[in-house]
Amino acid sequence: MTDLTRLTAAELSEKLASREVSSVEVTKAHLDRIAAVDGEIHAFLHISKDAIDTAEGVDVLRRTGSPLGPLAGVPIAIKDVLCTLDMPSTAGSRILEGWVPPYDATVVRKLRDANLIPLGKTNMDEFAMGSSTEHSAYGPTHNPWDLDRIPGGSGGGSAAAVAAFETPLALGSDTGGSIRQPAAVTGSVGVKPTYGGVSRYGAIALASSLDQVGPVTRTVLDAALLHDVIGGHDPRDSTSLRDEWPSFAAAARKGRENMSLKGVRVGVVKELDAPGFQPGVSQRFHETLDLLQKNGAEIVEVSAPNFEYAVAAYYLILPAEASSNLAKFDSVRFGLRVNPVGGGTVEDVMAATREAGFGAEVKRRVILGTYALSAGYYDAYYGSAQKVRTLIQRDFASAFALADILISPSAPTTAFKIGEKIDDPLAMYLNDVTTIPANLAGIPGMGLPMGLAPEDGLPTGLQLMAPARADARLYEHGAAIEALLEESWGRTLLSQAPELATR
Predict the structure, then answer these.
(1) Above 90 in pLDDT, residue 275?
(2) What's 82's DSSP letter?
(3) How would you label 350-383 residue by residue, b for 16+ Cβ within 10 Å and e otherwise?
(4) pLDDT at position 1, please?
(5) Could you tell me if residue 332 is inside a domain?
(6) CB atoms within 10 A of CB 180
(7) Tens of pLDDT along 404-460?
(8) Could you tell me if residue 103 is inside a domain?
(9) 2: CB partners within 8 A, 6+ apart
(10) pLDDT (tens digit, 9 = 90+) per residue, 315-336?
């Protein structure tokens, strides 16, 4: 039998629907894979004890002829920022160690309703603050391409699990690139939907005006199939859009079948094609531009002059919102509680708990955010950052007047070594320089493999961006570009992965 862990979600769906394989067989194959390699990768923080039982239930439904969705019986991993009734939800932090929520996040409930099989919860930078998954309180995740290197962040666990064939699908969250940047450095596909297109209810908040839940997969079609499941309006989320969304899977299939970009205006953002990027990343990006042009795309250079202020604005808006959102972790209602020696007031307990429960990066950002919101500094810092945000949104509007989609590298470098930037926060923050603008504007963004950098043989990523609510356009053109790139390589990128990721 074909190794079930090497199949895409779409391929597994076909085999499950035809009853060529059972969900129990598929689930067991992935659990065995996790047992075999995750000791080295550390993509998972928790493995579900109910996965096989859930798979058996889906098999019973299929045998009795119950109507099932296209991903019924397919395994999925869930980033530990999402609340789950039956598994701990720690957000990668000691302050929530062992905490089991009393409810499911809306996206998790939708997975269960669609009969997917949750395998477990994946590792992440604490409260999604980081670009390398080194800031997890439970230790770093390792990149399957090179175990000495980071898998990106904050959702490195989800990306590594997909790239190491531990799961065909995963959920992530993207505040400034936490889906797309890990996709770039692990050779996977990651999508940040339009802000409000996927419910944030039950996602442990970092920055509420930036956070967005999205798919992490190995193909654009798989991402589209998962997006179809998790998307749509949620009355429990006040920012949820009421739009009627088209089938993203249909858009992806159309793009892959046609493999044509004739007449598509592809905008290259001048400010996101920086000379300081790793040479191999720039080389693959410009080779990709040539490929798209040869296949009918009209390459248009666009300028977004305010993008140079995006990182600075983001690292004022995010800490400000994070300092507010994390105030709820106060030792009083849930989570960790540390009692000072000799007792103390509620404030003493709160201070001791937050000192022990939060890591260094979380403390750094909370302090920065509290300062930016303090009396006398609000207008100078947070208020000014919001004005820059408006200018960035206007830059995108001008760019999309000239182009149907915008493209750039998803990350300025390939995966760096674990420990290389952990003591240099500014260097770490710059890993999100190409992805942050999309979050500030609320538009959808997709990261997909762009080939291997010649100097180190590690994955590079291509970022696609579309106007708000034009997620279907992203899937159609993304699937076409994915097919063209694979045709030029002669095979998929993950088939070129080193021994750990393919054994």
Answers:
(1) no
(2) B
(3) bbbbbeebbbebbeebbebbbebbeeeeeeebbe
(4) 47
(5) no
(6) 35
(7) 999 999 999 999 999 999 999 888 998 999 999 999 999 999 999 999 999 999 999
(8) yes
(9) none
(10) 999 999 999 999 999 998 888 9
Contact 107, 114 (CB under 8 A): no
Would you state the torsion angle of the CA atoms of residues 386, 392, 393, 397, taken in this order, to the nearest 10 degrees?
A: 160
pLDDT of residue 316: 96
- Determine whether 15 is an active site residue: no
pLDDT band at 502 (very low <50, low <70, confident <90, very high): very low
Residue range 191-250, pLDDT digits in tens: 999 999 999 999 999 999 999 999 999 999 999 999 999 999 999 999 999 999 999 999
pLDDT tens string 107-140: 999 999 999 999 999 999 999 999 999 999 999 9
| Among the listed residues 126, 131, 141, the one whose alpha carbon sits nearest the alpha carbon of residue 96 | 126
Q: Is 410 tagged catalytic?
A: no
Q: How far is CA 254 from the centre of its chain?
A: 24
311 burial via Cβ count (<10 Å: 0-12, 13-18, 19+): middle
In a domain, 326, yes or no: no
d(CA 122, CA 167): 11
Count of CB atoms within 10 A of residue 251's CB? 24
Other C-beta atoms within 10 Å of 390: how many?
Answer: 13
Q: How many domains does the chain have?
A: 1
| CA count, 13 A, side-chain hemisphere, 353 | 25
Please name the helix (run of DSSP H) or strand (run of DSSP E) that holds residue 291, with its range, or none: helix 279-294
For residues 387 and 381, is the Cβ–Cβ distance under 8 A? no
Q: What CATH number did the domain enclosing 290 receive? A: 3.90.1300.10
Q: Is the pLDDT of residue 2 over 70?
A: no
Distance CA 255, CA 389 (A): 32
Q: Is 158 a catalytic residue?
A: no
CA dist 105 and 103 (Å) reads: 7
Residues 137/96, Cβ–Cβ less than 8 Å: no
Confidence of residue 56 (pLDDT cuts 50, 70, 90): very high
For the chain, the residue count is 503
Residue 350 lies in a domain: no
Look up residue 139 and give its amino acid.
G
> What torsion do the CA atoms of 218, 224, 229, 234 make, to the nearest 10 degrees?
120
DSSP states of 358-370 as a string?
A: S-HHHHHHHHHHH
Residue type, 222: D
The one catalytic residue in 15, 79, 192, 421 is 79
pLDDT given for residue 490 in this prediction: 81
| Active-site option among 23, 173, 178, 199 | 178
Residue 465, CA atoms < 13 Å, CB-side half-sphere? 30
Task: State the residue range of the domain holding 262.
Answer: 9-304+396-502
Which of 23, 93, 154, 410 is flagged as catalytic?
A: 154
User: Which pTM was predicted?
Assistant: 0.97
Nearest to 174 by CA among 424, 422, 418, 432: 432
